[in-house]
Amino acid sequence: MRAVWVTLFLFFIPLHSADNMKTVRSIVIDTQESLVWQDNREAVEDIWKMANAYCKQLHLNNSDIWRLPTKEELIELSKNQNLKQDFVFLQKGVYWSSEIDKNDEFSALTVYTGNGFVSSSDKCEKYFVMCVRDLEI
Predict the structure, then answer these.
(1) Domain-located, residue 7
(2) Which residues constitute the domain of residue 100?
């Protein structure tokens, strides 16, 4: 009986693992904008300073040159419905950009990925964080 249990256990584990490997991705490549987007975790909200630090220390997909996206990069992502479908973890929500509000040193620009709406947000508020890097050709 024990031999049957081990055989069944070994039979089911690889099938389950193979299914998980198909659905887990770590990046989305935007060839039109020459960008690589992070897509390896559920959306996390944080303050701007911590979001910036997170992207600077991120090591993903054999690269450590990640950063917060610019306002324009987030707007383009928001408009590109085909690209948004490639993401597993992208939320329809407000994301930090790398840009500080020129009129208020305590605020940075955020973008709503549902429609590309840009707003100025207090750096101490928590919004979604997603990192990006330039596509190396």
Answers:
(1) no
(2) 27-134
